[in-house]
Amino acid sequence: MNIFKIAQQNLQHSKAATLFIKLIEEKDFSIACVQEPYITNEHIPGIPIGWKQFHSTYRSSIIIKNPKIPATILETSADSISISIFLNEDVALTSTYSSPSEDLDSTLHEYSSNIPINTHQIICGDFNAHSPTWGYHREDQRGKLLMDFISYDNFFWLTHRTRNQLT
Q: Domain Endonuclease/exonuclease/phosphatase spans what residues (predicted)?
């Protein structure tokens, strides 16, 4: 069985994504889901040749370092990109960004309805939601919505308990 490591990070449209790329290489991540990447000419500057890049406008991207991982686009929207990858079996991988000014409830509903039934799903994103589960002192309404979504749809929460840490 192969082991794949997936990173998630909001790059905040920074041109200096090179530090993140260095971390991907040093920590041997196979895949990175990024939110708010700096994109020029449909690419994130500094990504090595041979790495695959998938983008949804300028809000979310998925970078695949390992060229042996087959990937096809399943769905794109203004805020999200979902691809199908084969990690010992088919998996739907989504990178998403949810602006604090946008309705999180409808965004979460999209995840439940757009991915084929009986498909394993990994969602990586910046939801602009606060919860003690991921390091905030108190839960806000967006955090409650996200926690309810995770519980209701039988997702598992995978993260370190501190904010702003590469997981």
A: 93-161
Amino acid at 93: L
Q: How far apart are CA 3 and CA 13, in angstroms?
A: 30
Element (H, E) at 31: strand 31-35
CB 122 within 8 A of CB 93: yes
Q: CA–CA separation, 105 vs 23, rounded Å? A: 33
> For the whole prediction, is pTM greater than 0.85?
yes
Provide the 3-class DSSP secondary structure of residue 139.
Answer: coil
Phi/psi at 4 (nearest 5 deg)? Answer: -120, 135
DSSP string, 53-112: EEEETTTEEEEE--TTS-EEEEEE-SSEEEEEEESSSEEEEEEEE--TTS-HHHHHHHHH
